[in-house]
Amino acid sequence: MAKLQLSASEILTILREHHLLKNVIHENNQLVVTDVTYDSRTARPDGLFFCKGNFKPEYLTKAVDAGATAYVSEIGAEQSPATGYIVTNIQKAMSLLSAAFYGYPQNDLFIVAFTGTKGKTTSAYFTRGILQQTTHKHTALFSTIDRILGPKPEQEFKSDLTTPESLNLFHDMREAVDSGMTTLVMEVSSQAYKKNRVYGLKYDVGIFLNITPDHIGRNEHPTFADYLHCKLQLLVNSRKCIINAESDHLEDIYMAAKATTQPEDIYLYAREGYQPSIDVPIDYRFKSREDTLKDAKFSVTHTDLAVDEPSVDGDYQLALPGDYNENNAVASIIAAGLAGATTADAQASLPEITVPGRFESVTTKQHGTVFVDYAHNYASVKALLSFLRKQYTDSRIIVVVGSTGDKGISRREGFGKALNEEADVAYLTADDPGFEDPADIAKQIDAYIDHKRVDVHVQIDRPTAIHDAIVDSRAEDVVVLAAKGEDPYQKIRGVNTPYPTDMVVAKRVISEIEA
Questions:
Q1: Distances (CA, A) of 462 to 56, 347, 348, 439, 489
Q2: pLDDT of 432-444, one tens digit each?
């Protein structure tokens, strides 16, 4: 187990090496810190306090009163008796110092990291499932849904961010290593790079799944170019790269990978017959064999260019249907192969892997089939509804959906577009409205919907909207509860308000109407 401490000389060396240090206030060369935090409520004696975000001087005062002997900040506080390390970028400093404090746990893990507008969570679950077989259950998971740090029940818990703050990230890596984990599968969001949560972190394998406009607006990315730039940083910081050659902006993606990775360590995949937008070598091809509501079957073969690559040729089956999940699975199979998995490992594991809140369903007696899925932007909603449209050719598709407040502004137009293309009926409702009025968000989505094509209802109370949608459905219809998945709360004005989850609400409604 690593000794959790940092000396003054270590702090100064790290900050100077990365050109982050501006000056030191009340310098103490004998300083040794044995705790790190950015929350003044958890500050401890001999601790290092990071003054991040919307910093207020009273937070530092509270931390020092609790025993913190040093702080890192972009703004000096001469009045504080603690040693102050004044830096040019607090987020970068916190990431580097946190990694050092926790003994660089990333060096003891084989790290597989996913980014993309859609599919990150499903791909992460697929990959971890395969590697659990390979590593004899010594693979950790950092995902949008769950964080799994070790074998104990208390080491599995719900995530609050796709990629957490750097201090929490390295803390959890240290616990994973100390619990015997040898491999880590994680999702990396664009915000993780925008806010330097993974600054200085390198991945053994980085996977770029796809890119479509998302997370653009206030409090997020100002432009699509900024969003794409942040996404590409995962490839720049990966030793080996896997790229979906069917992604938009392939030239930008491929060139980002080539900037820091040798061509022989870049692996591209695409479905059989697909011609990419630029002339790039395709290492793996896949072909869909069967795609039903129960499962998906497909095959993967290497091309002549992939003679020395991981051997993943074979036939595979998924418990999750949908050709978009086949795409995710191919990336996972290649990634797991680079981590040491065999074809047999993947073939044995994939049919057993499910993902909470992804394509879960319940069938009613007289009100059709209800699906719950986390699809939460244009690309994922379009893919989901398009697949269901192929399976239920003569059915109405009824969608319950809302959009988050304070972020993901561009999703509102995307939801309208997806509904126009694939839905018959829409119930617009609340989904983590934050500090916005959910009725205003619903109006914004509604403005993009063609009312000649889609029958629109507005019911802000989400449980009521789910009730009305199911009651409105007929035996042959499909009801889709989109965007929340397994989320057990609604984010309302800064408070995570308990919410029973869409599936729990749906089952409750079905029980009532079928009683």
A1: 36, 39, 39, 12, 12
A2: 999 999 999 999 9
For residue 307, name the pLDDT band (cuts at 50, 70, 90).
low
Domain boundary among 101, 120, 142: 101
| Exposure letters 7-38 (e unless 16+ CB within 10 A, then b) | ebebbbebbeebebbeebbeeeeebebebbbb
| β-pair type (156-158, 183-187) | unpaired
Q: Greater confidence, 30 or 163?
A: 30
Residue 389 is assigned to a structural domain of this protein: yes
Single out the residue in 43, 68, 101 at which a domain terminates: 101
What pLDDT sits at residue 193? 94
> Which residue do the tokens 């074979």 mark?
314
| CA–CA gap between residue 258 and residue 273 (Å, rounded) | 25
Clarify whether residues 378 and 435 are in a common domain. yes
Number of domains in the chain: 3
Per-residue model confidence (pLDDT) at position 158: 85
For 39-73, give the DSSP string: -GGG--TTEEEE--SS--HHHHHHHHHTT--EEEE
b/e sequence 108-135, b meaning 16+ C-beta within 10 Å: bbbbbbbbbbbbbbbbbbbbbbbbbbbb
Quick one: 311 and 424 in the same domain?
no
In a domain, residue 321? The reply is yes
- Domain with residue 168: its CATH number is 3.40.1190.10
Which range marks the domain in which residue 199 is found? Answer: 105-352
The Cα 297–Cα 289 span in angstroms is 5
506 vs 485: CA distance, rounded Å:
12
Measured CA to CA, the distance from residue 121 to residue 116 in angstroms comes to: 10
What was the pLDDT predicted at 103?
97
What integer best gives the mean pLDDT of the chain? Answer: 94
pLDDT for 511 beyond 90: yes
Sign of CA dihedral 179, 182, 186, 191: positive
Helices 410-422 and 378-391: angle between axes, nearest 10 degrees: 10
Cα–Cα separations (whole angstroms), residue 130 to 104, 148, 457: 26, 15, 43
Query: 35-94: per-residue pLDDT in tens?
Result: 999 999 999 999 999 999 878 899 999 999 999 999 999 998 889 999 999 999 999 999
Inter-residue contact 331 to 209 (CB < 8 Å): yes
The per-residue pLDDT for range 432-475, each reduced to its tens digit, is 999 999 999 999 999 999 999 999 999 999 999 999 999 999 99
Within-domain flag for 1: no
Is residue 354 classed as helix, strand or coil in its secondary structure?
Answer: coil
Q: How far apart are CA 394 and CA 387, in angstroms?
A: 13
